Amino acid sequence: MPASYAYLGPEGTFTEVALRTLPESATRQLVPMVSVPAALDAVRAGEAEAAFVPIENSVEGGITTTVDQLAVGEPLMIYREVLLSITFALLVRPGTKLSDIKTVSAHPAAQPQVRIWMGKHLPDVVWESAASNADAARLVQEGRYDAAFAGEFAAARYGLEALETGIHDAENAQTRFVLVGRPARPAAPTGADKTSVVIWQRDDHPGALLELLQEFAVRGVNLMLLQSRPTGEGIGNYCFAIDAEGHVSDRRVAEALMGLKRICPQVRFLGSYPQADVDPRNVRPPRAGTSDSEFAAAWDWLARCQDGRF
User: In which region does residue 102 sit, left (phi positive, over 0), alpha (psi from -120 to 50) or beta (all else)?
Assistant: First the structure.
């Protein structure tokens, strides 16, 4: 049997479409799962080589279920990311008219991306959340709901028709997906990489978040995402999911993570991996004073000072 990749199912999700853009997906058994936690737990249990799940969209931000599941439990690591442009179709059973629709369903992350369109075309329709957009299409097929927001490609799979297509409130909306596996040595840097971590504050005090961010700032590490998530330990207790430019093997990134480890009770490394759709040749060089060669020169100077050779 080929190795398997678990993904947010059922068949016909945007997740499946994005997963199939990976060349290695052609040599893997693709296994749809009922939820993001189920896909990640399949990896933790050794039932799948990797899981492919959504983690962020350009309209609503982080997919909190994915972020939270990566922050707790047995550690996992991100190996790849994929960006997919998203537009929705309104899928209905054949013969359904817009005036017939009383209920509509989709994944919760879809709602902010179609809210304006709904307000204009379906102002009195009741929204019902589903585990995924494809699952919403399945529920329409079964007669549970009147319509679903999903990819137009899911219509044939579930015996539905697209009543409306090209639905989106924001132009150029994208969703970011990640391939997640068990921890291992990160791939070699490409020159256009991203490092993801989750960090916890030691305590809440004035300037606490600033202290964390300074570990990146003073070393010239640009942050691409900063998201606070409750720890579940009471109001006001948060951890922070961070995406930073660079690879853990870059001296500036490595030293920033070391600084965080000194001042945080917990730092969870989620991986260093290539940025999707970024050509390393177009990446701007590190800020003056933060390149690997400059870090090495500083260490050499310090060693000479300690040896009395300055």
Answer: alpha
Span 246-252, average pLDDT? 96
Q: What pTM did the predictor assign? A: 0.89
The C-alpha atoms of residue 8 and residue 303 are separated, in whole angstroms, by: 52
Closest to 108 in 3D by CA, of 158, 149, 154, 53:
149
Residues 6+ apart with CB under 8 A from 242: 196, 197, 198, 199, 216, 223, 225, 226, 227
Contact 7, 15 (CB under 8 A): yes
The mean per-residue pLDDT over the stretch 88-108 comes to 95
- Strand 50-57 vs strand 174-181: parallel, antiparallel, or unpaired? antiparallel
How far, in Å, CA of 37 to CA of 15, rounded?
A: 14
Contacts of 258 (CB under 8 A, 6+ apart): none
Q: Within 10 A of 52 (CB to CB), how many other CB atoms are there?
A: 26
Helices (H), 160-285: 208-217, 251-263
Closest CA to 246 of 281, 212, 208, 273: 273
